[in-house]
TrEMBL record:
<dbReference type="GO" id="GO:0019843">
    <property type="term" value="F:rRNA binding"/>
</dbReference>
<keyword id="KW-0694">RNA-binding</keyword>
<keyword id="KW-0687">Ribonucleoprotein</keyword>
<protein>
    <recommendedName>
        <fullName>Large ribosomal subunit protein bL21</fullName>
    </recommendedName>
</protein>
<dbReference type="GO" id="GO:0005737">
    <property type="term" value="C:cytoplasm"/>
</dbReference>
<comment type="similarity">
    <text>Belongs to the bacterial ribosomal protein bL21 family.</text>
</comment>
<keyword id="KW-0699">rRNA-binding</keyword>
<dbReference type="GO" id="GO:0006412">
    <property type="term" value="P:translation"/>
</dbReference>
<dbReference type="InterPro" id="IPR018258">
    <property type="entry name" value="Ribosomal_bL21_CS"/>
</dbReference>
<dbReference type="GO" id="GO:0003735">
    <property type="term" value="F:structural constituent of ribosome"/>
</dbReference>
<dbReference type="GO" id="GO:1990904">
    <property type="term" value="C:ribonucleoprotein complex"/>
</dbReference>
<comment type="subunit">
    <text>Part of the 50S ribosomal subunit. Contacts protein L20.</text>
</comment>
<keyword id="KW-0689">Ribosomal protein</keyword>
<dbReference type="InterPro" id="IPR001787">
    <property type="entry name" value="Ribosomal_bL21"/>
</dbReference>
<comment type="function">
    <text>This protein binds to 23S rRNA in the presence of protein L20.</text>
</comment>
<dbReference type="InterPro" id="IPR036164">
    <property type="entry name" value="bL21-like_sf"/>
</dbReference>
<dbReference type="GO" id="GO:0005840">
    <property type="term" value="C:ribosome"/>
</dbReference>
Amino acid sequence: MVYAIVRAGGHQEKVSVGDIITVNRMKGEAGDSVDLDLVLHVDGDTVTHDAEALADMTVTAEIVSELRGPKIVIQKYKNKTGYKKRQGHRQDLTRLKITGIK
């Protein structure tokens, strides 16, 4: 089995060819091709983690769509002072399809 650990959108993800992953927003339009940075490459019994060897390898992905994550509610409260604050956040995300590990 061939898979790789890549750094994408501030996180590390385990990917194989054909996987669809969701990462933090990346620049590009739907259908564009993106190269991802490798951290580790596994091909059967061969494990590669040397930076020089990984520089020659590439993981390519195609941008499928852009979406927004679930709403996170942030609430602050201080007792006996009447202070209340409510804030919401939705993270911008990009969905990628892994097209090749070489």
